[in-house]
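Title: [Solved] UDP-3-O-acylglucosamine N-acyltransferase 3D structure

Original question kept below for reference.
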Amino acid sequence: MEPNCFFPPHDGVSLRALADHLGAELADEATADRIVRSVSPVYRAVDGDVCYILSRKNKDELETCHASAIICDPTLKSLIPPHIPVILSSSPHAAFAIAGALLHPDAMRPAQLTSEAQAISPSAFVDPTARLEPNVVVEPMAVIGANAEIGEGTRICAGAVIGADVKIGRDCTISAGASVLCALVGNGVIIHNGARIGQDGFGYAPGPRGMLKIVQIGRVIIQDNVEIGANTTIDRGTMDDTVIGEGTKIDNQVQIGHNVRIGRHSAIVSQVGIAGSAKIGNGVQIGGQAGVTGHITIGDGVQLAAGSGIITDIPPGGRYGGVPARPIKDFLRELAEIMAKSGNRKKKDGVRQDD
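Solution (posted by the thread starter after getting help):
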């Protein structure tokens, strides 16, 4: 792979320093002075790279690996070729994430697009009544509305729109082309390119001459350390608030309707649709293209398979899949039966064709 000009390698971190930073164990102290500068997948890792494995499925990839270190669980140490140093961690995936953040801090949030020396670009518009704390960066063509408040260390990227009276906390990044209206945003929030926060919810009532628009006067509340993907939309509440809980991560192209409440540290994958007034608990994981109907409750810790259709309440802690969603074991068993019947029909059709 050609050198990456977007995310160049780190100046270098010793394996001893890396292991200490991860709270992990360096298997061989003789390798403590080896240097790592970047991250890489196992199969093409070279000197200076650190990578990780999670299972024995990675064994074949190790044949072409020349990394300066591999992070793995102690039970997988015997798989690693003797020429590759090993960092032992009971949570190698999380350890690798921490290593990546250390080696490539600039990749952890959208980068500044311009090299202007001024914190507030002359081509941005900041309403005179807006209040910005020190060290706020406002890039070209961004708009900050009346009475908006923005905390220290936050960056408003090129072409972003911050509506009137919006409040954004400290150390946030509002990326290029995003719009944030009718919202209160906590600290450490990342909103990626083109996201739309706080526009009207979809509310109409049938009338004698067609659909009548229902007023939407709620807000969007985004708590600390939330990340919202590109082109995701989060509607403001009708009369209550739409709430995204602390630490929740939302992928690209997700639709979240009005009055939805999502708990803390949940993960919602691309193209999920959540209808109005649904309540989603803490630590919930929702796979891509799942659909959640309105006015239902999904309990804490639930895992929903990609493509699921959720139409009723789900109690805490379960794993569900299918349309309509049911316990994952039931769904997989039914799927296996369908595939077996389909295979039998194909065999019978094949016999008739041979005859």
